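Notebook entry, cofactor series.
This is the third protein in the set we're modelling with a bound small molecule. For this one the ligand is fe (ii) ion. I'm keeping the input format identical across the series so the outputs can be compared line by line later. Sequence and SMILES below, as received.
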Amino acid sequence: MAYTAKDYSNLIGIEGFSETLLRNHFTLYQGYVTNTNKLTDSLAAMLKEGAVSKPEYSELKRRMGFEFNGMRLHEYYFGNLGGKGFLDRSGKLGRKLAENFGRYEDWERDFKATGAMRGIGWAILYQDNVTGKLINQWINEHETGHLAGSFLILVMDVFEHAFITDYGLKRADYIEAFFKNIDWAEVEGRLK
Ligand SMILES: [Fe+2]
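Returned structure with ligand:
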């Protein structure tokens, strides 16, 4: 059964993100959902037809990592926006960030620096599912660099489409605006 795109129109009106930027971003996200559904159907049809040894099958398989992650990462991203950007540093997540990075400020500096890296992709705060440790990681495009089995805690889109409409090339200003709108309750709820 086809997967349905989630509705994030509740985010319209958040400070620092214009309606045009957000609506275009929702449309891009919906494209990933459509393409993931299409790919799923094409692969199932090829399996039925016995076409699994064709190069087209291999290429579609590879493509799934791009489309599926493009879909799911946007859901984490929109899902961790819409808050007031206030993190209680004495709470579970605040304490854990300080514990893992020395102090909260060092975590923030590292996460922002990860997001400011040249290239298109994502900055993600992960929790290692084996050790429970928190790790800031860069993802190239949507599918390269994921930490196997780890949980996604905070997800920030740094493709140009996420900010260029409102901030031009000033990615650092966008990152500041992103931080002002983090829904930390949602983020903390993702901790295991
Ligand atoms: Fe995006």
